[in-house]
Amino acid sequence: MADKKNAAPLPRPTAARRWSSPSSWWSGVSLVGPGGLLAGITRTVLESALGAELDAHLDEAGVDEATGRRANIRNGHGAKTVQTEVGPVRIQVPRDRAGSFTPRTVPKHARRLDGFNEAILSLYAKGLTTGEIAAHLADVYDADVSRELISRVTDSVVDEMEAWRQRPLDRIYPVVFIDALVMKIRQGQVANRPVYVVVGISLDRERDVLGMWAGTGGEGAKQWAGYLTELRNRGVEDVFMVCSDGLKGMTDAIEQVWPQAVHQQCVVHLVRASLRYTNRKDWQKITPVLRDIYTAPTVAAAEARFEAFAAQFGDQYPAVIRLWRTSWPQFVPFLDYDHEVRKVLYTTNIIESLNARFRQAARRRGHFPTEQAAMKVLYLVVQQKRRGGGSITGRVYGWAKALNALILAYGDRITI
């Protein structure tokens, strides 16, 4: 237990400056700078964290057996100014009588601290609402931070997000993956809206999110054509292969923007769509046959295996056969490559892993109050993964072989 008797009380805001005060108080008050609101948040959180650290340190020292008193106690505070993301912040650093306290929140001799805003943005990107973040800060740091201020911290990334969404892109992307997910966003009333996402792999095997857009209504090829045109206007002159689901009209939308691009149907989407037309009890018979088709060594072998599949299941499931015949021109391009290259080209798993993280961040909220709030969370998810060096952005392993195969196929269009 902490020594409450010897603990110096943490400074609390006055009634006139309490963070939970009415919104009318915000007028005329600076958000940033030495006297700004964010500096006040930072000061209280840092001082609360330092106080908790010292409590733990004093507990470790225990009790002097000879006197029955604590072996170490608090010994006032020392003032210190640290540079933070919100400007200089003057804090009171607690001290102990023995002089053995070495804080980690604000290390000795440290004059610059980073990461306070990062902590809030990290929680926001994980799907916590402003109210949940406020409760977290109150539980962990005993910091009374209002939801309005947390919202202002997260709003600080809006300009950065818009600059990122308009940034220039590479001239050539050998492979681009496109997909959409559905999110609940309020438009007068809560509605399901598609969020369009494009991930590209560059010539130097860097994988990156090229764009994200919140659409209206259901997913459509016409909207995709507009968003792909935006990518072209940002510098993407040529794409060799675009991998997508089987949305009707997608091939025409891609060719409208990049006439030489090959449209590759995502095999995973094709198999899933096939199973939707079949009885579950037949899945164990159907899926091995479909696997034989998309793992065929050549296009001719795939065609022969498909005809055998059609002869076996055509009468029972004509819709599946029709689906594959319609999708065949977009299904076969990846069969021109060997197995290692196919793994890169035949599925949108790269972008679906990103969408899974998007859904995880959105699940806690139920719905977003505005389109900007939704896009802000998705942007923070992307940026956090970028800094973490995970599977969403960064280098694609095994890409060298795929790049060499693409150079053989499209060498006259590649400039390295």
From TrEMBL:
Pfam families: Transposase_mut. Signal peptide: none annotated. Residues 7-21 have a biased composition (Low complexity). Keywords: DNA recombination, DNA-binding, Transposable element, Transposition. Residues 1-21 are annotated as: Disordered. The keyword DNA-binding applies. Belongs to the transposase mutator family. Required for the transposition of the insertion element. This is Mutator family transposase. It comes from Plantactinospora sonchi. The lineage of its organism: Bacteria, Bacillati, Actinomycetota, Actinomycetes, Micromonosporales.
